[in-house]
Amino acid sequence: MIGWAERIWRAGTGALLWLLAGMSLAAAEEPQPGEINFQPAASPLAEEVHSFHHLLLYVITAIALLVLLLLIYVVLRYNKRANPTPRKFHHNTLVEVLWTAIPVIVLILIAVPSFRLLYLSDRIPDADITIKVTGQNWYWDYEYPDEGEWTLSSHLLPEDEAKKTGQTWLLAVDDHPVVPVNAVVRVQVTAYDRLHSWTVPAFGIKVDAVPGRLNETWFQATREGTFYGQCSEICGPKHAFMPIQVEVVSQEKYQAWLAETKGRLAAADGPAPARLAALGSGK
């Protein structure tokens, strides 16, 4: 029969292997059921976030194993059968120094890369494109301030239309912003009358949309594709129905999309058809 010590060892090593395996699981461009890791990074900022997460995972795993081994040692060494006469002591200088010094060293190891990541996310490089995002009830408005005065409204794609086009409902939208690959994009985020949060995990960004306040973040998509996110601030009855969809294309396709969108919105004489405007207002 397997002893209880071996059972604990097998359970501990199994949990460690499961955690480490999760670090190597590859995800699709959109989240899939059963995944336990980040979506693949599509920007330098997301790569830094993933690297910091992996560092923390190693640190957490090492600490958990150390504590587990110490507990096993104490149970085996100081149980009533192995130690019938309890030892009596009050202080141990070496142990007290170690349990003070080791956490300080761990905190320093964590602090250095965390400050670097905070600086990288807060310092916006010289931008090639600026996009203003406004959280509405419950959809997103997108403006390109350097490209004239026009607004692109992005609403949840109805379930039947998503099925017809083979897209994922609750992630796909009827209209979405487009950016060129490798361009530095400054994102200015605000809201109309309640809190929202504009989040795209593959870009490593999450910024609150606050009425009366303009928050900023940035990303630089390193590969073409369609990337998804969702409002990450509980904002009301349709919080779960305001997804985010960003398409990354070549510079040539971006310029063609820009010209087509300007003409389309100008011809429509408004940011969105009346049906979509009514949907966004909750009517």
Provide structural commentary:
Helix 1 (4-24) packs antiparallel against helix 2. Helices cover 41% and strands 19% of the residues. The protein is α+β, with helices and mostly antiparallel strands and 283 residues long. It is elongated and about 90 Å long. The protein has helices spanning 4-24, 44-77, 93-122, 159-165, 251-268, 274-280; strands at 129-135, 140-143, 151-154, 178-180, 184-191, 196-200, 205-209, 215-220, 225-230, 243-249. The strands form three sheets. The chain has a five-stranded mixed sheet, with no helix packed on it. It has six helices and ten strands, in the order H-H-H-E-E-E-H-E-E-E-E-E-E-E-H-H.
Provide keyphrases for this structure.
single chain, 283 residues, alpha+beta, five-stranded mixed sheet, three-stranded mixed sheet, 6 helices, 10 strands, 41% helix, elongated, disordered C terminus
How helix-rich are the residues, as a percent range?
40-55%
Which structural category do the helix and sheet elements fall into?
alpha+beta
From the spread of the alpha carbons, the general shape counts as elongated
**Relative strand content:** 15-25%
Task: Trace the largest sheet across and list its strands.
Answer: 3-2-1-5-8
Distance, first to last CA: 67 Å
Query: Major sheet, described briefly?
Result: 5 strands, mixed
Could you tell me the radius of gyration in angstroms? 26 Å
- Oligomeric status: single chain
What's the rounded overall pLDDT mean?
A: 85
SS element count, helices:
6
Instruction: Give the SSE order as H and E letters.
Output: HHHEEEHEEEEEEEHH
How many beta strands in the DSSP annotation? 10
Give unreliable regions as ranges. 13-28, 270-283
